[in-house]
Design brief:
It is a single chain. By secondary structure, the protein is mainly alpha-helical. It contains 3 helices and 2 strands, in the order H-E-H-H-E. Strands 1-2 form a two-stranded parallel ribbon.
Amino acid sequence: KSTLAQSVAQSLGGVLASTPGAEFASVRDDILQAFKQDQLGRALFYAATVSLQGRVATDQVRHGGTVVMDR
């Protein structure tokens, strides 16, 4: 799925965005571990990352860019 999304983004001359996002790559596992007994906490973490990536994508599109979002 990610390889296809990257290929589509390149074909369209756009950028690839994903959730939870590169900003969280180094801490994602630690955060999920911290919330392992708290489904609401996990859901809120993911909701926050979706919100962030949505805002980044919206800004990109407003400036004429193309965004392919890989969940």
